[in-house]
Structure to design on (162 residues):
C-alpha cells in the first residue's frame, strides 16, 4: 500500500505566470496539483497551498511557518515546492524534524512554460520522498541532495554538490 504524501506549496518560479500588462512574472496559483493529475499519479496526495512567494522574499517567519506546517500535517512523507534561489536555506531550517521525510523541489522555468523542468522535478521528488530515510532533502536536476552539501549554480541554472 502506498503511504500518502502531503505537498506544501510556497510559490517560487514553478508557480510563476506572465502578466502581460505588467511585462513581468508574478507567482500565481499552485501548478503542482494539475501537473500531477495530468501525469496520472496514483499515489494518494493531499495539498496545502501555504503561500505564494518568490523565494527571495522569504522571511524567517515564513520559514518557521513552513516548518510548523510540516510538523503539523499528519503524513510522514512531505514534498515542499519552493523557489530555487533560497530553497537550500529553507531546507536547512527544517533540519531536525523527527519522523518525517521532507523533499524540497521547484523549477528553473515556470511550470506553464513548454521547456519547463517542473514536472520532472516534481516526479523526482514524489519518488524520492517514498524511498528516502527520515530527514530533509532537495530533489532537483535528476538528483537528490543533502541541503548541507548543495548549492545552486546560478550561471549554469542547476544544483550541484558543494
Amino acid at each position: 500500500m502506498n503511504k500518502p504524501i502531503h505537498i506544501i506549496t510556497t510559490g517560487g518560479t514553478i508557480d510563476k505566470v506572465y502578466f502581460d500588462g505588467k511585462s513581468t512574472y508574478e507567482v500565481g496559483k499552485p501548478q503542482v496539483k494539475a501537473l500531477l493529475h495530468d501525469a496520472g499519479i496514483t499515489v494518494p496526495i493531499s495539498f496545502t497551498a501555504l503561500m505564494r512567494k518568490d523565494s527571495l522574499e522569504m522571511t524567517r517567519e515564513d520559514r518557521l511557518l513552513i516548518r510548523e506546517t510540516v510538523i503539523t500535517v499528519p503524513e510522514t512523507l512531505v514534498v515542499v515546492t519552493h523557489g530555487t534561489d533560497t530553497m537550500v536555506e529553507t531546507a536547512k531550517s527544517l533540519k531536525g524534524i523527527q519522523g518525517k521525510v521532507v523533499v524540497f523541489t521547484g523549477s528553473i522555468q515556470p511550470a506553464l512554460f513548454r521547456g519547463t523542468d517542473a514536472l520532472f522535478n516534481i516526479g523526482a521528488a514524489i519518488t524520492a520522498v517514498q524511498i528516502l530515510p527520515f530527514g530533509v532533502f532537495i530533489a532537483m536536476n535528476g538528483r537528490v541532495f543533502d541541503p548541507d552539501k548543495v548549492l545552486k549554480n546560478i550561471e549554469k541554472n542547476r544544483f550541484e554538490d558543494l
About this structure: The longest helix spans residues 118-131. The first strand starts at residue 5 and ends at 11.
